[in-house]
Amino acid sequence: MVYRVGLLGLGTVGTGVVQILQRPGHPLLRAVDIGAVGVRSLDKPREVQIPPERLTTDLERIVSDPEIDIVIELLGGLEPARSLILKAIDHGKQVITANKAVIARYGAEIFQAAAQAKVSVLLEAAVAGGIPILQPLQQSLRANHLQAVWGIINGTTNFILSQMTQEGISFEEALAIAQARGYAEADPSADVEGWDAADKIAILASLAFGLPVEREHIPCEGIRDISATDIRYAREWGFTFKLLAIAQSSPRAASSAGPSRLDIRVHPTLLPLTHPLASINGVDNAVLVQGDPLGQVVLSGPGAGRGPTASAVVGDLLTLIAHLQTGAQVPNPLLGFPPLLPFSAGGAEPPQLQVGIPLAELEAEFYVRVLAQDQPGVIGAIGTCFGNHRVSLESITQKECHREQAEIVILTHTVREADCQRAIAEIRQLPQVAGIPGLFRVLR
Amino acid sequence: MVYRVGLLGLGTVGTGVVQILQRPGHPLLRAVDIGAVGVRSLDKPREVQIPPERLTTDLERIVSDPEIDIVIELLGGLEPARSLILKAIDHGKQVITANKAVIARYGAEIFQAAAQAKVSVLLEAAVAGGIPILQPLQQSLRANHLQAVWGIINGTTNFILSQMTQEGISFEEALAIAQARGYAEADPSADVEGWDAADKIAILASLAFGLPVEREHIPCEGIRDISATDIRYAREWGFTFKLLAIAQSSPRAASSAGPSRLDIRVHPTLLPLTHPLASINGVDNAVLVQGDPLGQVVLSGPGAGRGPTASAVVGDLLTLIAHLQTGAQVPNPLLGFPPLLPFSAGGAEPPQLQVGIPLAELEAEFYVRVLAQDQPGVIGAIGTCFGNHRVSLESITQKECHREQAEIVILTHTVREADCQRAIAEIRQLPQVAGIPGLFRVLR
Ligand SMILES: NC(=O)c1ccc[n+]([C@@H]2O[C@H](COP(=O)([O-])OP(=O)(O)OC[C@H]3O[C@@H](n4cnc5c(N)ncnc54)[C@H](OP(=O)(O)O)[C@@H]3O)[C@@H](O)[C@H]2O)c1
Ligand SMILES: NC(=O)c1ccc[n+]([C@@H]2O[C@H](COP(=O)([O-])OP(=O)(O)OC[C@H]3O[C@@H](n4cnc5c(N)ncnc54)[C@H](OP(=O)(O)O)[C@@H]3O)[C@@H](O)[C@H]2O)c1
């Protein structure tokens, strides 16, 4: 049996996929024939050889071609990717994609359509590149009551933070290096504002907690405001900065009724240097999964790049072909994305989770850096503001003075964010205070 | 549809499996009924409630009971585990096991039988406890040409080495702590001699490289000879001691013909503190997988214990049920262990790998600690011996003197092991030399 693949896109990842398929690492992949490749330009020089009659700009034809069994979408962007995926499903094709943006926004629509058409949509490459994370979350780890998924899932920002940490340079300098090396785009917003990480944690959270997660319910803060100074002070206290994407079930206080809540967010975080995610540097990604009775596992490796991403795409292709070869009549319920389907279908109650908690309601320790006039009494005034809002402090230190200014760095105990924000607002009003350039959460 | 499970063994892991199944984390697991549980003693108090009529000492009956669909073997040991697994297969049952000892020795026999009976034998829990590693190696990572699998896959020895490193204590003291905490058995040989790690790397290597690995082809050295002194000196140079299980394809020298070779071995290793496996401490396990075009991924987490191991067993059960629900007519070729089957069946040539390389033929850097009389010229004499056998040195240091004795610690460049061994033999003959208590490989 030969499986005919329609490949949409022959860019970074698409080229990597063709390279693997032209020299497959597993015998089952020899059953694959690349029937058609859809691109924007037929004239562009390509790094791989594709018979000219198979290269086309007519992507609509690929996804409706009765000869094609499996469509691999590697275009990127929202449209025409979304429409082509839906059309491929309508025509009964299995689908593989690396497109986190489309899945995070249109996942519900896509997986509903896939369930109706009885096809699978696989997307291992969409999150954390070459690291196996979606399949383990659905299979090996799935017997657990999953409690938390924490990820460093954006390689660009991890590279920038690693550079800032190692070289003591500013965000702008580190961004320029990332751009020069091709790790950041000319407009780096999607990465540095945390939007890409938010797309990915939406996907991880839906899988881990079995419920749809709306992208807009994810509070998201980027890394632009982190300064070399904050990184240095954090380090002195044994912390390192990481852009964390977090999804965890958060039991309500015993007093209040209602379902548990899914705490999901993306923001820069100070992690103790001994934390298992603290040593993930450069463009690497890592995902920590905590479950009961499992405990914690950490999966780490290259989160992007041609080779790792293509490896995940072709891993999905292999998984799909193996499944099709068994004579199965329906999709395997642990492949693709059944959690987004109506829960009644599987006979299960929907999980009792309210998605998204406003940051103000969460608890954390905080790192705060205040610029103030170097006057006696300023530490006392700042401490009093925190006390007024029941924010208890672990440490308050006057760091260094220049031009009559003092830098005062504070580490709080675990407090409600709303209380900390109120204290901060009061501190901003103090006559001695010039500004609060650093305010970050500390997690352990 | 209800799937009836026959559970063989209700000890540490078996009890954990029942606990998960009595409070399942995934709706598909509600289709599981624990039809029978086989134990040695009916009178032992149990931590979980099993209806008395389902508890039996007649394990033969469980594996031949037509009502049972899936047999989970959690007895441990070679017999009767092997015979019961084979009998279950003969009776057409799907099998799940956590028994690395049986699989490492009788895997070929068992998987051959499973292929004939068209059933799957799953064993995620047999290697690295709760860490998903066998499924990723077979699915998400399988599109790669796998080059190396390095593992810290014995929690007992990793705990002992971590204790020795953190507390500066001896092997015997650390072993006693491990025994007191239940991490080491009264007879700790299987762990500390590296035999358990060898069982597991045999399984990992067969999966990763797609060929049967005979347990006897794996050179294996334990951790008994590591002293607190060696750990301290290694640390000063930026290394930490780990018991590594290694499987990697080793291309022959360009000059020589013949297939590539599979370098597979277990021994204590000095790793740079910056190595991704260097920070795996305590009873945790980790597996590093390197492939082309993937690069390196590292999967880490709890390598043993009731919860993590049961999590992996029930993960396999879920995978199996999901597969059975699809109406598949044959086992999924990416579940269980097809690589041990005759390769012609899949239309693939057998991989061109010769399994096992004598350590003497391998290359490494070496750490050597020599006890010698504190006399002028001794460093020169030792250096000359190394030079005689073309062992080039990175560093040779006289550490401290007590009772007229000097400790001389050497780090070589990368050399053939046979050359290093010849130099060591010559050094042993030097009149000034009292002994060579430390000789270990350094890998990066
Ligand atoms: N690159 C990574 O490291 C990475 C990692 C993880 C996930 N991903 C995801 O993988 C997907 C592909 O990324 P990539 O880096 O390979 O993108 P890319 O290099 O920009 O390639 C995109 C390809 O799609 C084609 N294409 C785009 N829009 C098209 C249209 N409207 N009609 C026809 N063809 C069109 C382009 O054709 P032309 O060649 O003719 O221009 C090109 O071949 C994205 O969803 C991305 O998020 C990428
Ligand atoms: N423990 C771990 O952390 C761990 C981790 C990874 C893999 N594993 C593997 O999991 C398997 C089970 O380990 P375990 O720690 O759960 O072992 P265990 O605590 O010693 O339990 C063994 C169970 O099997 C029963 N049993 C043993 N021999 C029997 C026989 N001949 N007839 C009937 N019943 C018999 C015992 O019955 P009684 O209760 O009546 O004595 C007991 O219930 C082993 O293969 C082990 O290598 C264990």
Automatic annotation (TrEMBL), chains A, B:
Gene3D superfamilies: 3.30.70.260, Dihydrodipicolinate Reductase, domain 2, NAD(P)-binding Rossmann-like Domain. Residues 367-441 form the ACT domain. It comes from the Bacteria. InterPro entries: ACT-like_dom_sf, ACT_dom, Asp/hSer_DH_NAD-bd, HDH, HDH_cat, HDH_CS, NAD(P)-bd_dom_sf. It holds the Pfam family Homoserine_dh. Pathway: Amino-acid biosynthesis; L-threonine biosynthesis; L-threonine from L-aspartate: step 3/5; Amino-acid biosynthesis; L-methionine biosynthesis via de novo pathway; L-homoserine from L-aspartate: step 3/3. Its EC number is 1.1.1.3. Its cofactor is a metal cation. It catalyses: L-homoserine + NADP(+) = L-aspartate 4-semialdehyde + NADPH + H(+). Transmembrane segments: none annotated. Keywords: Amino-acid biosynthesis, Methionine biosynthesis, NADP, Oxidoreductase, Threonine biosynthesis. Belongs to the homoserine dehydrogenase family. This is Homoserine dehydrogenase. It comes from Thermostichus vulcanus str. 'Rupite'.
